[in-house]
Amino acid sequence: MRKNPVNKPDSSRSLLSKIWGDRNSIPQNIAALSVILLLLGGMLYTFFHPDHKLHPDSLSVRDMWTIITPLVTALFGYLFWGFRKPDCLPHAEE
């Protein structure tokens, strides 16, 4: 009897697929992981950034969040609005 490769037992799945889901949700997983890493990196930089007086060439906390905020906003937009089918979006009246 031949086994169906689609119905693999749960034990053969990788660690990330057990946590994040199947391969159909890879774009969402990458976007969500990126948001987590950006926010975590921003928080770490906020609390452990080099002193701006001692290192004048270092990036200030405000500048770091100025870079991170649009990226996180774009990723949230992709996560929550990027997966809608074109049929469900409102059409412009002609």
Can you characterise this structure?
- It is a single chain.
- The N and C termini lie far apart (59 Å).
- The chain is mostly helical.
- The protein is elongated.
- The model has no long low-confidence stretch (mean pLDDT 77).
- The longest helix is centred in the middle third of the chain and has 23 residues, at 26-48.
- It has three helices and no strands.
- Give the beta-strand count: 0
Enumerate the spans where pLDDT stays under 50 for 5 or more consecutive residues.
none
Structural class, from helix and strand content? mainly alpha
Question: How many strands, what sense, and barrel or not for the largest sheet?
Answer: none
Shape: elongated
Oligomeric state: single chain
**Helix/strand order, N-terminal first:** HHH
What does the average pLDDT come to? 77
Number of helices: 3
Q: Gyration radius, to the nearest Å? A: 21 Å
The CA-CA distance between the termini, in Å, is: 59 Å
Residues in helices, as a percent range:
40-55%
Kindly list the characteristics that best describe this protein.
single chain; 94 residues; mainly alpha; 0% strand; elongated
